[in-house]
Amino acid sequence: SYVPRLLCVESPNGHMSCIGEYALVPGELRNGFPFWKQKAGDRWLFSGTNGKWYIAGQDARDRDFACQSGVIYSGLAHSGLTPDQVPGPWVRKYGSEYLEDREIRISAASASDGG
To answer: 2 with 82: CB under 8 angstroms?
Structure first.
């Protein structure tokens, strides 16, 4: 099934530490789904135990992603759709609140993987 090897995260209104390219961790699943590692930083994009996509840091990695927390997450459960396909909006943490942010975009970094 379709899994993008590279994802690009845009978040113009906050959490600049989360933006950039994320590379698929090949051959591994967490909570039954693939996950991605930020190429230029220590953020991870993964499926939480509640079936939503999350972007979080080393604390989630330390728990082997057995959590449902992150600074950015998909507002809807993904039902098996990859982060570039899940319908928005995404939600970001803002202080102690969570805000829907329609400018957060996650896209597959290449239009085609050649196969």
So the answer is: yes
Q: How far apart are CA 94 and CA 1, in angstroms?
A: 35
Give per-residue pLDDT as tens, 22-81: 999 999 999 999 999 999 999 999 999 999 999 999 999 999 999 999 999 999 999 999
User: Are 20 and 41 a contacting pair, CB within 8 Å?
Assistant: yes
Which pTM does this prediction carry? 0.92
